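Incident log, support desk, overnight shift.

02:14 A customer reports that sequence design results differ from what the structure should imply. Their input is reproduced verbatim below. On-call engineer (initials T.W.) acknowledged and began investigating.
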């Protein structure tokens, strides 16, 4: 068993509990187990001591009202040389969501961003980041590639964008993927709060914009929530 990896993961999970708590910090959790105020910070940041006593762990588990197996066990981390691919995969799946990557040329000929298209690849995103940006599941997300220069300098040809396909309505201004005459477009859409009409524009000023459009007439496939670019 690889205890170093186990203790490292335990410290990461404990730090997450403390940082996301509305009323706890390092000092308060140190006091909870009867230690000096710097004890927990040293344990998490420096790994000193290397591990916590069983009764201290029990107090922490009860305080945060979490499952006894929340931190896992050393058995989850086989020693080098052992077969631990399943453990690594489970560890990866716990922290990341894998999003399908589609070719935009294929997407342009289908009924939606992903319908009837083959998956070209997958990109992994932190689940915590996805939750902070969207309520979508992996099946509601797609990565496609930008084609053309109409969105320069925000998006360039070849950039990859993450599309939240649950956002098929115009609720907030932003960059959206929409279908028009069988073509997939990536455009910035803004809503006039007075007229309730919207403007569809390219960030590249050499391209024309469409003003006073009815939001209900738009075939929005999703909103862009992330972009990635090769350097």
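02:41 Re-run completed on a clean worker. Output:
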């Amino acid at each position: 068993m690889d205890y170093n990896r186990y203790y490292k993961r335990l410290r990461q999970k404990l730090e997450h509990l403390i940082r996301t708590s509305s009323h706890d910090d390092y000092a308060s959790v140190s006091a909870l187990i009867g230690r000096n105020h710097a004890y927990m910070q040293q344990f998490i940041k420096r790994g000193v001591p290397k591990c916590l006593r069983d009764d201290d762990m029990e107090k922490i588990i009860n305080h945060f009202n979490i499952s006894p197996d929340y931190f896992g066990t050393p058995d989850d981390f086989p020693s080098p040389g052992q077969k631990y691919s399943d453990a690594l995969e489970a560890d990866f799946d716990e922290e990341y969501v894998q999003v399908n990557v589609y070719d935009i040329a294929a997407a342009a000929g289908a009924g939606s961003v992903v319908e009837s298209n083959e998956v070209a690849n997958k990109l992994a995103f932190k689940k915590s980041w996805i939750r902070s940006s969207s309520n979508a599941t992996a099946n509601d997300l797609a990565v496609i590639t930008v084609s053309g220069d109409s969105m320069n300098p925000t998006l360039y040809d070849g950039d990859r964008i993450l599309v939240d396909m649950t956002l098929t309505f115009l609720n907030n201004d932003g960059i959206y993927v929409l279908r028009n005459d069988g073509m997939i477009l990536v455009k910035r859409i803004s809503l006039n709060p007075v007229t309730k009409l919207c403007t569809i524009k390219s960030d590249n000023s050499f391209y024309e914009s469409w003003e006073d459009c009815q939001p209900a007439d738009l075939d929005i496939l999703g909103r862009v929530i992330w972009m990635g670019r090769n350097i």
